[in-house]
Amino acid sequence: MFRKAQRKKARLRLGIAGPAGSGKTYSSLLIAFGLGGRVAMLDTEHGSGELYANLGDYDVATLSPPFSPDRYIEVVKEAERQGYNVLIIDSISHAWAGEGGLLEMHNKYSKAKGNSFTAWREVTPAHNALVEAMLQSPMHIIATMRSKQEYIMTTDDKGRTVIKKVGMAPIQRDGMEYEFTLFFELSLEHLAMATKDRTSLFDRRPPFLITTDTGKTLLSWLEEGIDPVAESEKAKEALLERIGRIENIFELKNWYKKHAPEINALMPEHQKEVIEACTRRRAEVEGQRKTA
């Protein structure tokens, strides 16, 4: 059930939020170029993603309304198929508050069902699917979000209800920033501050200007540890070799039950190979028994 914890190489999951003009697109490209490899951008900002073509080589896919999560996922999967190393999603705020986005979907279901709370049952799976597409992607993912001024209702020293500014908040579902390994907030002066940092590279660092070196620093951290693909390949080969030596159905069932945690820890494509090998071996053993 338990195994020794190991630091593995990883892919970047970076969120960048900021108000209009704070440099989200520009900063994302600089980090992407620092990471290296082929760079793609999903642009929902009316072509603004191509304004920085002078910075370096990257490809753009423009997404127009409706901004439903499934359309974002289609672009993510296509970028994976085309072999990009980095995908910038600029921005995912439209998937929440844009035309055809999750809030509009929720409003539609609320009117149809007459219940705002139960309407989230229809909307939340679409949001979760987009999050999973980003988290499970073999590419580095950089997702930008627009920020808005956030307010709260409170009472003053005289007991009166007042509205108070409490800072900026990303235009996305509450808690979205916690899905990322690293989350930067940008100011109008284009300075970044890490508000969530699992890398510990930017903790307690004063606001700074993002450059390509930021991407290079992140790449060095991401490349530390074992290669999960190579480790999964090695484990898969060992499992396949053992499957080929199983002699009966009872042994096969017990073997699979015992090694299920190891199989589940494999990369999805390697899991599929092992499961298919078990199915083939079962058919071979049953065939041998019938002809005996």
Helix segment tally:
9
| H/E element sequence | EHEEHEHHHEEEEEHHHH
Instruction: Indicate the percent of residues in helices.
Output: 40-55%
Architecture (CATH level 2) name of the largest domain: 3-Layer(aba) Sandwich
What percent of residues are in strands? 15-25%
Low-confidence stretches: none
Euclidean distance between termini CA atoms: 38 Å
- Would you tell me the overall average pLDDT? 87
CATH fold type of the largest domain: Rossmann fold
Task: Please provide a written account of the structure.
This protein is α/β, with parallel strands linked by helices and 292 residues long. The protein folds into 2 domains: 13-222, P-loop containing nucleotide triphosphate hydrolases (Rossmann fold, 3-Layer(aba) Sandwich), CATH 3.40.50.300; 228-291. It has helices at 24-35, 69-81, 93-97, 102-113, 116-135, 212-222, 228-243, 249-264, 268-291; strands at residues 13-18, 39-43, 59-62, 86-90, 140-155, 161-170, 182-186, 191-197, 208-209. Strands 1, 2, 3, 4, 5, 6, 7, 8 and 9 form a 9-stranded mixed beta sheet that branches. A hairpin with a 4-residue loop joins strand 7 (182-186) and strand 8. 29% of the residues are buried.
Strands, helices and their partners?
Blueprint: E1 13-18, H1 24-35, E2 39-43, E3 59-62, H2 69-81, E4 86-90, H3 93-97, H4 102-113, H5 116-135, E5 140-155, E6 161-170, E7 182-186, E8 191-197, E9 208-209, H6 212-222, H7 228-243, H8 249-264, H9 268-291
Parallel strand pairs: 1-5, 1-7, 2-3, 2-4, 4-5
Antiparallel strand pairs: 5-6, 7-8, 8-9
Helix pairs in contact: 1-6, 2-5, 4-5, 7-8, 7-9, 8-9
